[in-house]
Each structure stands twice: as C-alpha cells, then as structure tokens.
TrEMBL record:
GO terms for biological process: monoatomic ion transport. The gene is GLRA3_2. The keyword S-adenosyl-L-methionine does not apply. It comes from the Eukaryota. This is Glycine receptor subunit alpha-3. The chain crosses the membrane at residues 48-72. It comes from Halocaridina rubra (Hawaiian red shrimp). GO terms for cellular component: membrane.
C-alpha cells in the first residue's frame, strides 16, 4: 500500500476551520444589506429608506431649530 506524499492538513484556524475553508465561506453581509434584500425592487428599497430617513431628519431639524430659537429668545429678554 502506498502512503500519500503530503499528509492531510489537520490544524484548525481561528474559528475551528482549516485555512482553505475560510475562503469558501463567502463575504459576510451586514444586517442592513440583508434587511434591504427582502424588498424585491429598487424602487421599493428607496421607498423604505425614505420612510425611515425623512422623519428622522425632520425630527433632528426640529430639535435643532427650536432649541436655537428658544435659546436666542431667552438671550433677548
């Protein structure tokens, strides 16, 4: 019986995987991208993003505006 020239690689990498298996996993997807992948069309993705960002920007603008307005009003008095 003939023995192989190179013995099998048995050492584990950082996550318990062999070094050649690390590259086979594929790129990691972020939570944001996996959530956006649920929407089938680009227009639906844009609509969902707009439904979240516009109210947030409006709220931040109102907080900044009214805090500046009220602060300036108190200085004038």
């Amino acid at each position: 019986m003939c023995r192989p020239l190179v013995p099998p690689f048995r050492e584990s990498g950082a996550h318990g995987l062999r070094s050649c298996e690390v590259h086979l996993q594929g790129p990691r997807t972020s939570c944001w991208r996996s959530w956006l992948a649920k929407f089938p069309t680009r227009s639906k993705r844009i609509d969902v993003i707009a439904r979240i960002t516009f109210p947030l920007i409006f709220a931040l603008f109102n907080i900044a505006y009214w805090s500046a307005y009220l602060f300036v009003e108190e200085e004038k008095m």
